[in-house]
Structures are given as structure tokens and as C-alpha cells.
Here is the input.
Amino acid sequence: MRRPSDFVDERRLWDRHMAIAAFGATGRGGVDRQALTGDDGRARAALAGWAVGRGFRPIADEAGNLFVRRDGAEADAPAVLSGSHLDTQPAGGNFDGVYGVLAALETLEALADGGFEHRRPIEAAVWTNEEGCRFAPGCTGSLVFSGKHAIEELWNATSPDGAVLKDELERTLAMTPEAERRRGGIPLAGYIEAHIEQGPRLEAGGFAVGAVTGIQGGASFDVTVSGTDGHAGTVPLAERRDAFRSAHAIVDALYRDLADPTDTARFTIGRFRAWPGSPNTIPGKVVFTIDFRHPDATFYRGKVDAIADLCAAHAGPCDVDVTVRHDGDPVAFDEAVIGRVERIAAELRLPAIRMPSGASHDAAYMASLCPAGMVFVPCRGGISHNEDERASPEDLAAGCRVLADALYEMAMGWDGSPGTAPRRAATGRAGPRRDARPRSRGRARDAGAP
Ligand code: HGY
Ligand code: MN
Ligand code: MN
Here is the structure.
């Protein structure tokens, strides 16, 4: 009895990764394809072209989310959704986000290749601005889709290079004119996102699949410290309102407060700028970012709610303003989805473990709408948000096979009861050749730089 996973084409999936990698390639093996830039728009247009080429329907919503839809027999039934993001970090890798988008598209292709019809529609999603490094907040697209914000509330977000989200969004939407327009979310039966782990556990343990149990809490802030510009050679230290010195005191206090002996908390200052930025002018303004994460809801909430007061307490003679970029409590995924991922991995003889996600994903917001979960695959050395991010064609295809069977089952409304599996192909067409042996327990083969 053939199943959708039999029709996942490893070569096609890999080639699509290499094609997307060209949009924003840095020449150092990684990519700079930040949200709503021309490269982001061109990558989305390429995906829409592949969709149209297979007879799938491209759809775009008011937040610029791009969906590729394969209708089911019950066109108005709640849809099954899968996807991730194409936008990247400024010095990012070619698999973070991209894999989840392309694995969702590959699922639609495998269903079409195998002649599988399904009850519910299935959509592959490209979420706008997941990374949040160019425009805050991150996860713009899934926040709007899940009703947490109207896009109009986020329109005026401005990037460090002075671009305004509204303008960039309109320009990007115009690059996929073939996409039907749709406003707001749609009824959903379930959501599963495929993603590289962005950590070392799967590779180190020889696992092919992570059945993700949830996402830790994560918050980020902009901190603005305001002092007084002055002459480096004449203003006595005791009379200065030195924004750098105050920022340094705040940062030192934050490191002391947010550290923990178990090394569970994650605390990062990724952006730090001083104005006017002259070597012989006392900086009158410093802006830096805080990114804090923790899996325990109580600990997380306690620390996040105390950050503004802690900054104020260590600002010295300067003023300080703390603005929340985003704040999401820990999220637990749906047990039935986790179990489905585990069961299918076992059926496909892929070693799998249950594990939480340290990184945040659009799935965090989708979990508020429907039963949601994620499928992780290994990435080399766990490296991510780094141009050396790598994954192997075999690992990407293995995770995609789990995703394809899981989405098909959800689109058939099958709960996994033994002996009632809806796996049948309308055609007997052989799927692409693939090695059915279980994944070797060795390291993922180095896929090399795209
Ligand atoms: O920051 C994150 O966890 C995600 O990669 N944007
Ligand atoms: Mn990601
Ligand atoms: Mn990322």
C-alpha cells in the first residue's frame, strides 16, 4: 500500500533549496535575505511560480503571507496547514525556515505525483518576517494570521535602514501578482511545521527526527539610554551623562540577574549602537536589544516583567526607555500531533526523539488556533543563524516523508486508529527511487555550500 512519503523526491527538494539559496547569497556559503527585501520578494515569486506550474493555487493575505493551496474533496472543510519562512538573518543559513516552506510544497507535489486525493485542503505557507531582525515584531505574518495583531497596527514599523514595513509589504505583494488575495485567517484542522533543529541533539544522538513538544518562552526588547553628548577631552567624568557607561551598567546587571547555574536561561544582546558614534564625543544615546528565553513559564514571566525596572535601577544619571519587541510565553504542542509524528517516524523506521524547541517559530502562534506541532531534522553541529548552517539532502528528505504522511492523515481526518489507515494511491505510478533502509546513525553527510 503506497503512502505519500513514497513520493517525496529528495533531489527535487534539495534542488529547490539550492534555487532559493541564490536569492540573497552572500558568496560566503550563507544568505542575507531579510524580510520584505527584493531578494525575499524574488524567492517568494519563485515559489509561486513552482506552485502555478503544478496547478496549485497561490494565495496572499494582507500581511504578505503567501499560501500554496491544494484543494481537497471538501473545499470548505477546515484546512491543514504547514510552512515556515523564507526571510533570513543578515548572515543566515540556507535551511532555517526555507526547509519548512519547501517540505510543505514537496508534500503537495508528492500527493499530486502519487495521485492522492484528500478530504481537507492542504496549504503550504510562507510566513512574513519570522526573523524580526529588519522589522519588529518577528513572526509578523503568523501574528496577523492568528489574530494577535491587525496588520495596520504593524504597518509603521521601521527598519534600521529606514524602510517602512507598509511600503515594503506593498512592494513585495506586487511581486506575486498571480496570487489570489485573501484577508485574515481561515478555519484550520491542524498545523505542522518542519524545521532544522538549530541545535546539536539530533545529530549527536543519531536521530533522524525530532517530535517537538513545544517552544520555550521568548521575549525581546529595545532599550534606549539617553544622556548628553559632550567633549571627550573636557567634560569631567563626574558631570557626564554618558549613555554608554549607563548602558554598560545596565547590561552588567542584566547578565548577573538573568544568569542561572543550570545554564537553562538564554540571554543575548545582539544589537548595540552608540550615537553620535564619534571617538571623541561622549555618547548621548545608546540603543541595544535584549533577547531572553526560558522554558519555565513562571521563571520566564517573573524575569521578563522585571526587566524594565532593572534597567531603570542601573541607568545612573541617564534616562532609559524599554520597549517590548515581542513577548511569548512557553507553548506546548498538541499531544496527538506529537504522537502522530512519532508513530510515522517509527513506521518509516526513522529514529526519533521527543524534544522541546529552543528557537521560536511561527508554530507558536498557530498552536493558539488548532492542534499544532513540528518535525525537526538535524543540522550539522547544530549550527544556525550562521552562514555555516548545513543540512544533508537525506535528512531533509527523511523529515519531509514524515511530514507528508502526517499532513495527509490530518487532511483525511484520520486519527491513527490501527487498521484504518487511508493510505492508497489512485495511481500505481512508482514514486521516485529511494532507499528504504533506516537512516545511518553516522553524522549527516556534509552537504557542502550551496
Ligand atoms: O529567534 C528565533 O528563535 C527564530 O529563529 N527567529
Ligand atoms: Mn526559523
Ligand atoms: Mn531563525
User: Anything to note?
Assistant: The first helix runs from residue 10 to 21. The mean pLDDT is 93.
